[in-house]
Amino acid sequence: MSTCLSDYDYDLPRELIAQHPLPRREDSRMMVLHRDEQKIEHARFVDLKKFLRDGGPSRTGGYLVVLNNSRVLPARHFSDDGKLEFLFLEKIAARRWKALVKPGRRFGRNAVASIEGVQVKTGEIFADGSREVILAEDVDVQRGGAMPLPPYIKRSAVVDRRYREEDDARYQTVFAKHEGSLAAPTAGLHFTPEILETLPHVFITLHVGTATFRPVKTENVTQHQMHPERFSIAPDAAAAIAKARQIVAVGTTTARVLESVHRTLASIQPIEGETDIFIYPPFQFRVVDVLLTNFHLPRSTLLMLVSAFAGREFILRAYEEAVRARYRFFSYGDCMLIL
After folding, report:
1. What CATH class is the domain 76-145?
2. Which residue among 43, 121, 218, 322 is least crowded, i.e. fewest CB within 10 A of its CB?
């Protein structure tokens, strides 16, 4: 059992962090990890179906692909002078929002700026580093902005406008439906409607919040606390998941929902609620048989989850191989299929 944060670190050349999506979603490379044989194979995402097969005696159907259909909110705004970036997390009251502001040192308490002509100023500064932002007008700032790209994808106010159309289209899955996420469920970004039609699949919803991308700041990872995120499983999806012989979870968000619900209800059932489940070794998965995921940041809760699924040493060896083979990392990068 590895509970030290430093045990989930690895070296990554900055040039391997994908700054833009490939011209076509389906052209991503796919590293395949065979857990039983501890073997690594190199493939393409378009090869996904050939690796999926019925498996496991505990269910009666075939395999089933489960995807997160949350839709990303365009909640990212730049100040009119281009010096500040705001990510609006949630509405507190009329004209009052909780937001992340970069760089925060330039927007201390009672500081004033403007966004598209609307004056904004700082109220309370919260313990987690976010800020209360007070607007002069009651504007829905979680719509009409830019996609909330993660900080390792570099965009300035000028560059953001240049690539706005690309990010609006590509930092969103083709099956996104229910608005509510502050980051994309990135494992789903590789799918096209044509590929999805060839796979038996259902959708669940988890709205990605700050819990998914908030850094771990405690050296003992067991002391890290995930923030709750909202999710739902519809009756038809729950019934299909219960019947499937092999569950293929697309993304860590999907895996967290399924494992959280099973631990609460002892089975997958229709439900709406919140989860703050934190998955790290030696977590025992009860629902997910196969995991499709992107490559994750060092020291992140997402890297800990895949380490729990495949084994920390195997995952770190795979990441070393991915660096050697020049895979593209993170949100706009390539993917990994763990069998």
Report:
1. mainly beta
2. 218
| CATH architecture of the domain formed by 5-72+166-338 | 3-Layer(aba) Sandwich (3.40)
Domain ranges of the chain: 5-72+166-338, 76-145
Give 2's strand partners: none
Identify the residue whose tokens are 């699949």.
Answer: 201
pLDDT (mean) for 199-224:
92
**Phi, psi dihedral angles at 133 (to 5 degrees):** -115, 125
Helices (H), the chain: 48-51, 157-162, 164-170, 193-197, 210-213, 235-243, 252-265, 301-310, 312-324
Question: Sign of torsion, CA 257 260 264 266?
Answer: positive
Mean pLDDT of 216-220: 93
Rounded to an integer, what distance in angstroms lies between the CA atom of residue 215 and that of residue 77?
22
Phi and psi at residue 274, to the nearest 5°:
-130, 150
Convert the pLDDT of each residue in 61-76 to its tens digit: 689 999 999 999 999 9
The angle subtended at Cα 21 by Cα 17 and Cα 24, nearest 5°, is 140
Q: What is the pLDDT of residues 177-201, one digit of tens each?
A: 999 999 999 999 999 999 999 999 9
pTM of the model: 0.93
Provide the mean pLDDT of the chain.
Answer: 93
Residues 218/224, Cβ–Cβ less than 8 Å: yes
